[in-house]
Each structure stands twice: as C-alpha cells, then as structure tokens.
Amino acid sequence: MRVDGSLIFNDSDLILAAVLAGQGIGYLFEDQIVEFVAQGQLIQVLAEWCPSVPGYYLYHPNRRQIPPALAALIDALRI
Known about the structure:
By secondary structure, the protein is mainly α.
C-alpha cells in the first residue's frame, strides 16, 4: 500500500494521540494502551513480533550512598 506523507514522533503521548485519531499505527508499551484496547478503541497488530518485557530496570552507580531523591524514586517504582 502506498501512503502519502508520514508522521514521525519521539514522544509516546504524541504517538498515542495520533493512533487514537486514526492516523496510523504506533509502537507503544502495553501498559500505555491496555485501557484503550479493553474499550475497543485500539487493536493490537503484529503481536507475535512484540517482545515481552517482564518489568522495568533501574541502574545506578552505587548502593552505599544513594541520594534521598533517588531512594524515594526507587521506593515509588517498587511495586
């Protein structure tokens, strides 16, 4: 299929807005679109090509002297 024009974004919120507006397909994290899929607003395509990621990882240089802000972030992200 030949298409005229293209949209290229590096912001997931803009990708989601464009996809919801019917402008094409987007590659997003599943947790960003799960509610839209459940409501029938979006469908997943090429599911067999989407890698499964068990969770997020946070790397930081040292465990001994973690700044309080980083410690708070780690506690907030830990589910």
